[in-house]
Amino acid sequence: MTPDDERVSPEPHVVVLFGATGDLARRKLLPGMFHLAISRLAPDMRIVGTSLEDMDDAQFRELAVRACREFSSRPADDDQLEQFARQLHYVPQEKGAEALSAAVKAAQAALEGPTRLLHYLSVPPAAAIPVIQTLEAAGLVEGSRVIMEKPFGTDLQSAKALNAAIHTAFAESQIFRIDHFLGKEPAMNILAFRFANGFIEPIWNRTFIDHIQIDVPEQLSLEGRAAFYEPTGAFRDMVVTHLFQVLAFVAMEPPTALAPEPISEEKNKVFRSMLPLNPSNVVRGQYRGYREEPGVSATSDTETFVALKCEIDNWRWAGVPFYLRTGKCLAEGQRIISIAFRNPPRSMFPAGCGVGTQGPDHLTFDLADDSRMSISFYGKRPGPGMLLDKQSMQFGLEGTADADEVLEAYERLILDAMHGDRTLYTTSRGIERLWEVSAPLLDNPPPVHPYEAGSWGPRNIEDLIAPLEWRLPFERAWRARE
């Protein structure tokens, strides 16, 4: 993870974007590459899009310009859009490997000097292997890199089979399994906050920390994704691919360097130390109305909500529960990590003074794009007597001069892949270990409980965490008060 201003600029790139007309490409990938291009953070590049739609270069360019106008997080003027559009080309998937190879060679010829190929597979899981076979047939594997979207299998057996199939064409060093959660500025700030500050690391352990919550509720419903979501569910969609990865950043030991191999090794140590999930420590839910969604079975048992307790059996974290929660159609859309510290002895404080009435001290990371962090603690209320209130210190990136320089998650991860930096990407070993940890739950899932859309999930989630409490929605109300 070399500072951006110290990295050697990579070679000119041809990006082959599979699924180029899909939702992710329109909302994130094309606007992200547009920003990388006009900001000159990325090297000179050409983008060859391909998908099932039958269109030509002009139509694809029009689609991309519309996407950038609608979804870019930054202003886009006509000249910049026109310049970006000239870098785009399109090959319908039905034309086959030979046509794709010819388009890539033409794009390479338009760039000066040696070029590098970067393939982005924005495709459904079932299409990943056929795409890799197309790349092999087109002769586009050697020396290239490939970015793959989750999910990386559905269980241990399928993950091993997928990795084996990918490895027939690509070496592990060529594969970039993307997790956009780790590309977010606040996720990376976890590493900076933990390891760059002398007052934090000595208390980042079971002696001082009582429990940790990673809470990622979503307000969105299925949004027409039944074909993907029905066989997947919230656990496979969010926990294995996102929340466990964030957990590793929170729990890992200090790496020898902020570089791909040391960080991957420390993350994998966390995964190896995780105890297998106990189904009795998992709550599954389904929002009322899910079975009426288009494409959903009337008897579907797919969970749209999951909350669980997991444990890490190592010297640092033994006995500290990690509570994870995510789901659809919930009360709010949030992404927080909340570290709850152990309570000190309080016998010196008089009864009724307020100490302890608002829960333990917390350090909270907000993983939303505006990147906030807060520390809550008890302090004396001004005035006579010893009355205590919960107080907080907060830091928000939007209040700094560097806020406009923040890259969105996909932008950062695409740029890292161009540099060959796999620090924020996931390895095959890590993925397979997480499916191994998940096996008891997948083999014996608890029943699905209904919950109302707009709630915080099934009622029995309180039993899972008792006698503790979920930090949300309290954390949100607390910050609003400030």
Which strand order do you get reading across the main beta sheet?
14-13-12-11-7-10-9-8-15
Average pLDDT figure: 90
Please provide the ordered H/E string of secondary-structure elements.
EHEHHEHEHEHEHEHHHEEEEEEEHHEHH
Structural class comes to alpha/beta
> How many domains make up the coordinates?
2
CATH superfamily of the largest domain: Dihydrodipicolinate Reductase, domain 2
Name the assembly state.
single chain
Function: Catalyzes the oxidation of glucose 6-phosphate to 6-phosphogluconolactone.
Keywords: Carbohydrate metabolism, Glucose metabolism, NADP, Oxidoreductase
InterPro entries: G6P_DH (IPR001282), G6P_DH_AS (IPR019796), G6P_DH_C (IPR022675), G6P_DH_NAD-bd (IPR022674), NAD(P)-bd_dom_sf (IPR036291)
Pathway: Carbohydrate degradation; pentose phosphate pathway; D-ribulose 5-phosphate from D-glucose 6-phosphate (oxidative stage): step 1/3
SSE inventory with pairings:
Elements lengths: L12 E6 L4 H16 L6 E7 L5 H15 L6 H8 L2 E5 L3 H14 L6 E6 L6 H10 L7 E4 L7 H12 L7 E3 L7 H12 L12 E9 L8 H4 L3 H19 L8 H14 L8 E6 L17 E6 L11 E6 L8 E6 L20 E5 L5 E9 L7 E9 L12 H10 L9 H16 L4 E4 L9 H5 L8 H8 L1
Parallel strand pairs: 1-2, 1-4, 2-3, 4-5, 5-6, 7-10, 8-15
Antiparallel strand pairs: 7-11, 8-9, 9-10, 11-12, 12-13, 13-14
Short key terms for the protein model shown above:
482 residues, alpha/beta, Rossmann fold, Dihydrodipicolinate Reductase, domain 2, nine-stranded mixed β-sheet, glucose metabolism, G6P_DH_C, NADP
Molecular structure report:
It is globular and about 80 Å long. Helix 1 packs across helix 2 and helix 2 packs antiparallel against helix 3. With 482 residues, the chain is α/β, with parallel strands linked by helices. Strand 13 (372-380) and strand 14 (388-396) form a beta hairpin. The protein contains 14 helices and 15 strands. Strands 14-13-12-11-7-10-9-8-15 form a 9-stranded mixed β-sheet. The protein has helices at residues 23-38, 57-71, 78-85, 96-109, 128-137, 156-167, 185-196, 226-229, 233-251, 260-273, 409-418, 428-443, 461-465, 474-481; strands at 13-18, 45-51, 88-92, 116-121, 145-148, 175-177, 209-217, 282-287, 305-310, 322-327, 336-341, 362-366, 372-380, 388-396, 448-451. Helix content is 34%, strand content 19%. The chain folds into 2 domains: 13-149, NAD(P)-binding Rossmann-like Domain (Rossmann fold, 3-Layer(aba) Sandwich); 184-418 and 427-475, 2-Layer Sandwich (Dihydrodipicolinate Reductase, domain 2), CATH 3.30.360.10.
